[in-house]
UniProtKB/TrEMBL annotation:
Keywords, ordered alphabetically: Cell membrane, Membrane, Transmembrane, Transmembrane helix
Predominant cellular place of this UniProt entry's protein: membrane
Record bears the keyword Membrane: yes
GO cellular component: plasma membrane
Compartments, as annotated in UniProt: Cell membrane
Domain of life: Eukaryota
Name this polypeptide is given: CASP-like protein
Chain ranges of the Casparian strip membrane protein domain: 25-171
Membrane topology: Multi-pass membrane protein
Keyword Transcription regulation: no
Transmembrane segments annotated in the record for this chain: 30-50, 70-96, 108-135, 162-185
Database matches in Pfam families: CASP_dom
Length: 186
């Protein structure tokens, strides 16, 4: 058994401070990745199941709103679903980084895909945000009326879904930063 020679000539099997730092960063990255996967899943599910029907006039006309009526919401659901699938499939590799601390090349691959997923989630959330803003405020210049007075449940669910998606984007930023730290330590 080969160890590190100490000052007195004895061998030691203690982890170096750099290795324990890498291990802590790898554990943090795994936890953040798990939380981001849950956030994107919850966001996609909340938006994908959003639908509300209300009578507009004394029960003669029904106003129906669902996420699939707007392409931006559909893109939002797809973007968050793709990001969630990627994050779930990257969990085993992230767990491998806890065990194998010096896996530098696979970390670089993950950082590349994490950055792409950050862009995808941010693009989907930004597109949906513009529609949610119009639903809440309307636009007098374009003659678009606010619909949230009539469809309050629809607006609450879409707004909550956006909050979850932006939180997941923030977690993805933290994942990228922690991966960069782990790469620099290895």
């Amino acid at each position: 058994m080969k160890g590190i020679a100490g000052e007195s000539g004895e061998t030691s099997n203690e982890a170096t401070p750099v290795n324990s730092n890498i291990n802590g960063v790898a554990i943090l990255e795994f936890i953040l990745r798990f939380l981001a996967a849950g956030g994107t899943l919850g966001s996609a599910m909340a938006m994908g199941t959003t639908e509300e029907t209300v009578p507009l006039f004394p029960q003669s006309i029904l106003l129906n709103a669902k996420y699939s009526d707007l392409p931006m919401f559909t893109f939002f659901v797809i973007a968050n679903s793709v990001a969630c699938a990627y994050l779930v499939f990257s969990l085993p590799l992230s767990f491998y980084h806890i065990i194998r601390r010096a896996a530098k090349h696979s970390r670089i691959v993950l950082v590349t895909f994490d950055t792409a997923m950050l862009g995808l989630v941010t693009a989907g959330a930004s597109a949906a945000t513009s529609i949610v803003y119009l639903a809440h405020k309307g636009n007098v210049n374009a003659n678009w009326l606010s619909i949230c007075q009539q469809l309050d449940s629809f607006c609450e669910r879409t707004s909550g879904s956006l909050i979850s998606s932006f939180a997941s984007a923030f977690l993805l930023m933290l994942i990228i930063i922690s991966s960069a730290i782990a790469i620099s330590l290895s």
